[in-house]
């Protein structure tokens, strides 16, 4: 296990690392998730050329620390991730990011362009949404106030998301989880979609066959590859790891 201090209070981000040559690959999890369980099988897949690979957990999630005075906005997550990557000696990485992590990765590439040479987004969030909506990706977390969620709301979310997602969500700090969900609903300025379309690096967006992203033609016109992965749902890397790896292969150095 590796770690780096990324917060003035001494909070550390931690990651599991697979050794290999540069350029590195950085795997970023979604809301209520953690990177190693979601990505280990594909990161170590024999078809992928061996590269240094960091399966990293954002602050508030998984094996990383949960500082109380961290804002947990998308921008704050991106800056903390950038600090961890710099301290790990990573630059010009391929970033593979799922769901909420995709929104963080877009912001990372926009705010810290020297760190990211290419983006592969996995059914990622591109647009803000009303916190009142109980969307599948957000599980309705942002529909509660922070105090409501910490007091009792998390129990309703636990029952709603089911045992698979809860197996990693239960590791998250409740306030950090809520603040991240609220930040995801709010989005970035400019919005993630606009940032993504303006990035001057190779970009791909992987999605399940039945759920093409909104305004996909606009993404394609901006040079973003939009690719359907068969026999998969939102968790593409878990649902169909072989197809996921074959989608990654031509898009990774």
Question: Short description, anyone?
Answer:
With 253 residues, the chain is α/β, with parallel strands linked by helices. 38% of the residues lie in helices and 19% in strands.
How would the blueprint of this fold be written?
Elements: E1 2-5, E2 12-18, E3 21-28, H1 35-43, E4 51-56, H2 74-87, E5 93-98, H3 100-111, E6 116-122, H4 146-169, H5 174-186, H6 192-198, E7 203-208, H7 216-221, E8 225-229, H8 236-239, H9 241-248
Parallel strand pairs: 3-4, 3-5, 5-6, 6-7, 7-8
Antiparallel strand pairs: 1-2, 2-4
Task: Report on this structure.
- InterPro entries: AB_hydrolase_1, AB_hydrolase_fold, Carboxylesterase_BioH.
- Residues 26-134 form the AB hydrolase-1 domain.
- With 253 residues, the chain is of the alpha/beta class.
- 38% of the residues lie in helices and 19% in strands.
- Strands 1-2-4-3-5-6-7-8 form an eight-stranded mixed β-sheet, sandwiched between helices.
- Strand 5 (93-98), helix 3 and strand 6 form a beta-alpha-beta unit.
- The longest helix is centred in the middle third of the chain and has 24 residues, at 146-169.
- The two termini are 25 Å apart.
